[in-house]
Amino acid sequence: MSTDTTAIGNLNNETTNTRRVEPPVNVYVRIRPFIGDELARGESQNMLCIRDEKRIAVKLYPTATNNIRPAQTSYNEYEVTRIFDHNCTQQELFEQILEQPTDEIFTGSNWLLCTLGLTNSGKTHTMFGTPKDPGLIPQCLQRIFLHIGYNIDAKVLYKPDGLENLVQTNMNNLQDEINYRKYIFKDDKDDYRRNHLQNIVQDQPSILDDHSVEDEHYSVWISFFELYNENVFDLLIKPSAMKKRKPLRLMQNNESTIIKDLVQIPVFDLKEAEDTIRFGYSNRATSKTDLNEASSRSHAVLCITLITFDEFEEEPTMSHM
Questions:
Q1: Which residues are noted in the entry as ATP-binding (predicted)?
Q2: Residues in binding site for ATP
Q3: What confidence tens digit (pLDDT) does each residue in 99-128 have?
C-alpha cells in the first residue's frame, strides 16, 4: 500500500510562554488501497501495521544479503494526529480534517494544507478527486460558497494587494482582473462571465465610490502557482505565454513575503472558482510537456483568499486557505 501524508496548520502566529495544548501542525496519514499491477503482483500490507487511530508501525524487510553481517529488519513506530485506512471516503476525510478550518477562515483564521507522498501515492486524488467523488479542494470551495450564499460582494469593493494587504477598488485598478477573466473564460458560449467584471466597472461606476454595505459580504479570490527549480511560476497566465513565462519575484519586508505580480482572480460562484482552478491545472499539464517538468520536481500551490466586510466593522478582514 502507498501512503499519502497530509499536514494542516494554522498560520496565525501566537507567542506564548506556556506549553501548547494543540500541536502547531496536525499530521494525517491516509492509506490507499492496492491498484492495478499491485494487485496482480500480489503485494501485501505486511509492512504496515495500524496500532490505533494515532499510531502506525512500518516494518522494512532487507532486500539484499550482507556478507559481513546478517541484514536486519527495521521496525519503526510513528505517532500522528490521525490515521485513515483504505476504507476512508473523500467525504469522511474532509469532515475530519478540513471542515472546521474552512469554517474558521470566516473568522479571520489562515490555514495551510499540504500533501506529501511518493508519485502515485494518491495526493492528486486526495486534493482534487473526481467529479463524482470530489477531493478536499472542491469540497472546501463548496462549503465556502454555501456559507456565503447570496452575500457575495457583487460590487467588488476591495481587492487583495499581494497576499498580505488589501485596497479599495476604483475604475482603474481592476483592469488587470478584467483581462484575466476574459482569457480564463474565453471558451464560454456567451460573454456573461468574460464581461461580468467589466460591466460592474463600466455600467455602475458610482458603486465603486460607495463603500457602504448592509450586513456581511464576502469576496473570493483565487491564485494558483507552482514552484519549480526554486522559482515561482504563475499558472493563471495566458496559455500562449507559458513557454516564455518568467519566474515571479519574491519580495520581503519586515512583516511579510510578497509574490510580485501574482495573478489573483475574483470569482463570484462555485462554478467560476472550479473553472479557474481547472484552467490553472491545464496550464500546469502544458508546462510539464513543454518544459519537461517532472511531477516530483514541481509543486503546485493553490490559494483561496476570502475578504470579509460588514457595516459594523471599520476595516474588512482578509484570510487565506
A1: 117-124
A2: 117-124
A3: 999 999 999 999 999 999 888 888 999 999
Q: Alpha-carbon distance 1 to 267, whole Å?
A: 39
Q: Residues within the annotated binding site?
A: 117-124
Is the pLDDT at 312 greater than 90? The verdict is no
* Domain of residue 102, CATH code: 3.40.850.10
Cα→Cα distances 187→61, 273, 281, 282, Å = 53, 15, 16, 14
For residues 55 and 145, membership in a common domain is answered with no
CA distances from 110 to 73, 107, 161 (A): 42, 9, 17
Decide which of 70, 88, 106 is a domain's last residue. 88
Q: Is 57 inside any structural domain?
A: yes
The band of 5, judged by pLDDT with boundaries at 50, 70 and 90, is: confident
The verdict on 252 and 114 lying in the same domain is yes
Written as nine digits, the cell of 301 is 500551490
Cβ–Cβ under 8 Å, residues 85 and 3 = no
Phi, psi of 267 (to 5 degrees): -125, 145
Give the 3-state secondary structure of residue 286: helix
Residue 38's pLDDT is what?
76
pLDDT at 39: 75
For 25, the grid coordinates are 501542525
Determine whether 225 is exposed, middle or buried from the number of CB atoms within 10 Å of its CB (0-12, 13-18, 19+).
buried
Residues 136 and 75 in one domain: no
Could you tell me if 277 and 302 are in contact, meaning their C-beta atoms sit under 8 angstroms apart? yes
